[in-house]
Amino acid sequence: MEGWGCTGKTRLELVWQSREKAVRRRKNIVEKYYGLDSLNVPTELEQMLLHMLFRKVQEEFALVASGWGLWSWLLVFSFYGPLSGLPPFDRPCLLHSFAAAHALGFLGYGLGRGRGFLSGRGPLLCAAAAALLFPAAFLVPLPPGLFFSAAAGLASASPVLSWALALSGRKDRVSLFVLTAAGANVLCQLYFAGALRLSSSPWAALSVPTAGYVVGSCLLGGPRGPVEREPCGSPARGAGPILLFIAAVYPVGSFFYRTFMPLAGRHFFECFGFLPYASALALGALLLRRLPLAALAGLSISVLGLSLLGPGFFPGAGHPAFAAACSGILLGLGFADLFLWLSLLEKASAGHHRVLGLCLSANVAVLGVVGTLANVAGFTAAFRAPHAAFAGAALLFALTPPVLSRLGAAGTPEAASGGLARLTRAERKVLDLLLTDLSYQEIANRLSLSPNTVKYHVRNIYRKAGCSSRQELCAACGRVDAESKQDNALPPDDFSRRAGERAGIET
């Protein structure tokens, strides 16, 4: 039986070897993603965990794809996108009414209105209405056009909120948001490049992002449970620092970007402007592995301020200075968007829906005001002077201490206690041992987990507590290492309960 192409091995041996490779691959997946001892996992449980993993990947892909469809349509057309500058879409008043109604839609959600449209077929119906009403606003006279655009802006808030709530329930929301935001910007550039080639048929160029918008709404799963209504008298906790950050960063960054972009090469940044923005998202996600979330706020303000100093110090440099300034502004806005959305998703996951609605409404309102003033004759010309760039940089640097001090309050013991209250059962067990002098390997041995799983739980604990080290975590918890030494190891034979907990956490 040696005539099968492999010397010294029978067909039965080859079949057995391939089966061993498949079993080993399956056990590696179980050990990597679930932290279980693959040698003690029954075959049926392995298959169940793999099925859960594939389902999780499928849901995450649907969530990212829906974000691509929603955000690319808003960025390229509805929200002062590149397509809005092409005829017959060059009617700024319709864009202003869309932005105002879009902000009102978020504000209504923050006040507890319209939350029934966030689940089921509500987002799809709202997206279909927005996709029909907003293009129709450019085909009718101005008074009904304003009504159509306002109705489209109000309806388009529901799919965005449904996507945000679905994303807030994910543990790996950082990577999912980065993939969504970067992919939506890339699609926006591709849509605009196609529109330039189809300049004789602008409606055909608009049909592609509109179809993607509706398809993205179809993929929305919405929040996993009903959105609980907060009491009428409950304050929007944590909204103050985020609103201060929005008021400090977005007006300055947006004004100067709209002012410098024509001088730096409008066509280049409309086609390749996603490069610095996507780079900021990827770099910010990497920095969050070592730094707290509030550090991104300081980094975005610093990058924006330094970007404005170039045109201020070198007003006669011309195109290179303005191109560098626009790239730096996009880099800073990328850090700002990452901080803002991750902060709001954290608030939404904790049940603070008012903060999500109010802050999104404020962000859209600020960008709408910037888009309105950018069309005022002579307004943008005033920002091209060197003293205007110096004034913008000085304003950012002056607002940096109060913004960071307010955002740094999230790392206090009072704020950390709220974050630690949202820990899962497995994270609480890791936390109890983390407050001692045990290493990651010793914690893994105590809980019968892999070191990578322990590191994953530690990153989640630091993120929820707003800490960046074990010392800060001990101070935030108000516990002494000697008092927190206790043996929480699970019995070696208590595998079924541990597997059930791990499966429940991942789902």
TrEMBL record:
Positions of the HTH luxR-type domain: 416-481
Keyword Transcription regulation: yes
GO BP, sorted A to Z: regulation of DNA-templated transcription
Residue ranges of the region described as Disordered: 483-507
Residue stretches spanning the membrane: 61-82, 94-112, 124-140, 146-167, 174-196, 202-221, 242-261, 267-288, 295-314, 320-343, 355-379, 385-404
Keyword terms, alphabetized: DNA-binding, Membrane, Transcription, Transcription regulation, Transmembrane, Transmembrane helix
Protein name: Bacterial regulatory protein, luxR family
